[in-house]
Amino acid sequence: MTDAVQPASRRWALAGLAAASLLSSAACAATPPASGGGNDGGPAGGNGAGSYADGTYTATGSYQTPGGEESIGVTVTLESGAVADVQMEPMPSNPTTELYQGKFSSGIKDEIVGTPIDELDVSRVSGSSLTSGGFRDAIEQIKGDAGQ
C-alpha cells in the first residue's frame, strides 16, 4: 500500500519538475529564420527584400493581452537595411504588462542588433511572448516609413 500512496511533497516535486521541463522545452524551441522569399510585406521589389533608407524611425505597436489591448513604443536605427540600435518605450496599463514589457525591453537589443530588418522574427524575448506582437506591429510600420 505504501507504493501506491506518495507523500504530498514528492507529488509536488514531480509536478514541479514536469512543469520546469515543459517550460524549458518551450523556451528552447527554435523559430526558423525568415527566408528571403519576400512573403511578409517588405517594400515592393524583385525578390521581396526591401530597400530601406538609413535613419532612426519610431512607431507604436499594439497587441492583445488577456487584460485588453496594450501598446509599446519602438525606435529603430537602420544602417544598410539592418538594425543598428533599438530602444523600447514601455506603455503598460497594469503591473503585469509593466513586468513583461520591462523584460522584453531589457532583452530585445541582444536579439536583433545586426539583423536585417526583413529577417526579424521575434516571438519571445526574456520570457515575454505577447509583447512581441506589439513589437512586430511597430516594425511593420517602421518598414513602411523607411521603405524606398
Account of the protein in words:
It is a single chain. The chain has 148 residues and is an alpha+beta fold. It is built from 3 helices and 3 strands, in the order H-E-E-E-H-H. The protein has a 3-stranded antiparallel sheet. The relative contact order is 0.18. Residues 13-48 have low confidence and may be disordered.
Q: In sequence order, what are the helices and strands, one letter per element? A: HEEEHH
Mean pLDDT across residues: 77
First-residue to last-residue Cα separation:
75 Å
Reported for the largest beta sheet, the result is: 3 strands, antiparallel
Beta content: 15-25%
Sheet with most strands: strand arrangement? 1-2-3
Number of extended strands: 3
Given the C-alpha coordinates, what overall shape results?
Answer: globular
Low-pLDDT sequence parts:
13-48
Structural class: alpha+beta
Q: Roughly what percent helix? A: 25-40%
What oligomeric assembly is this protein in? Answer: single chain
Q: Work out the radius of gyration.
A: 20 Å
Count of DSSP H/I helices: 3
Give me some keywords for this one.
about 150 residues; 3-stranded antiparallel beta sheet
Topology:
Blueprint: H1 8-28, E1 55-65, E2 68-79, E3 82-91, H2 95-112, H3 131-146
Antiparallel strand pairs: 1-2, 2-3
